[in-house]
User: Fold this.
Amino acid sequence: MSESDNSDHQQAADNADNEGQAAQPTEENPQSNLGRIEWLDLTVSDATRLRNFYKDVVGWQPQDVDMGAYADFNMTLPDSNETIAGICHAKGMNSNMPPQWLVYVRVADVQESAELCLQKGGKILDGPKRMGNSNFCVIEDPAGAVMALLSERKVNRPASANDSNEEAEENQA
Assistant:
């Protein structure tokens, strides 16, 4: 997988990691972000056109995300620099994503949730794989609805077949 392919969902992972880290359970605050929607992505063939659509219709402000040969977009709230969503081209790692808003939900363990998804009649559309400091996969439920799952990357976990060689070596270290 190329570096730009691995970056397609990187903003989602970075935002989710930052939010997840801020809300890790402690004795003082036993609540966590498990089960919460942490990010939204829209993957389409013409992300530039949709970037402009949502800029005009919703008021979101676009910020380019360099993907190498093209740019995806982070969309920020109108009166702040708070990133609220991503609009991505259906290229690289995103080439098999359906043209719909994809919600990212925090789970305790992506691998376990993926296995449960299969046991309960769902499908795995992408992953599980590493994305930044997170593990990530896209699932389809038995009714056909799609969502992404994120969890904190577990250190010393055996590498999956979807990890790159570099990531596999890092996981084995």
Remarks:
- The radius of gyration is 16 Å.
